[in-house]
């Protein structure tokens, strides 16, 4: 793979963008969260895509109502070129992490990867597109048995389904 020509400063700003996203999610700071997205951004989870600031706001407000508590921890970020785009203005990324989440009083654990498209606008990096994919997500009391199962996405009250990755 050809090295990506992204400055160290831009790499650090992109790492800060994903950190701010996780903190805003966990702090339920909807205004900060929305400010991290381009006005025409998209967010995807489980095949559902929401568009623009209003759609993304409504999606996250619903998510915030569903969870009593969340703790998102990013592990790493890999940047990739976008065909036909300058890496100083647009770059793709993959972010791995895990989370502890409490919907309906039941502790869940999850491992995720985001597939991102970042855009630089007025000197600031923003999310243009963010797609959430789960390696697993399940109640903690099912983790020992469920981790090795093919149906690793087990939200309390929902039918188990295959994980998005791998």
From TrEMBL:
Gene3D superfamilies: 3.10.450.50. Residues 7-130 form the SnoaL-like domain. Coiled coil: none annotated. InterPro entries: NTF2-like_dom_sf, SnoaL-like. Pfam families: SnoaL_4. This is SnoaL-like domain-containing protein. It comes from Dactylosporangium maewongense. The lineage of its organism: Bacteria, Bacillati, Actinomycetota, Actinomycetes, Micromonosporales.
């Amino acid at each position: 793979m050809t090295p990506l020509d992204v400055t160290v400063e831009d790499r650090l700003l992109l790492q800060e963008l994903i950190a701010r996203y996780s903190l805003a999610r966990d702090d339920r700071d909807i205004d900060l969260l929305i400010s991290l997205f381009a006005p025409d951004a998209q967010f995807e989870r489980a095949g559902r895509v929401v568009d623009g600031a209003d759609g993304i706001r409504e999606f996250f407000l619903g998510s915030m109502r569903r969870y009593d508590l969340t703790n998102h921890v990013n592990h790493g970020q890999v940047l990739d070129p976008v065909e036909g785009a300058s890496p100083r203005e647009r770059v793709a990324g993959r972010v791995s992490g895990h989370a502890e989440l409490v919907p309906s009083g039941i502790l869940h654990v999850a491992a995720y990867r985001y597939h991102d498209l970042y855009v630089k606008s007025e000197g600031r990096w923003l999310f243009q597109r963010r797609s959430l994919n789960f390696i697993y997500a399940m109640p903690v009391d099912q983790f020992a048995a469920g981790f090795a199962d093919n149906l690793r996405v087990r939200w309390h009250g929902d039918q188990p389904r295959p994980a998005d990755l791998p």
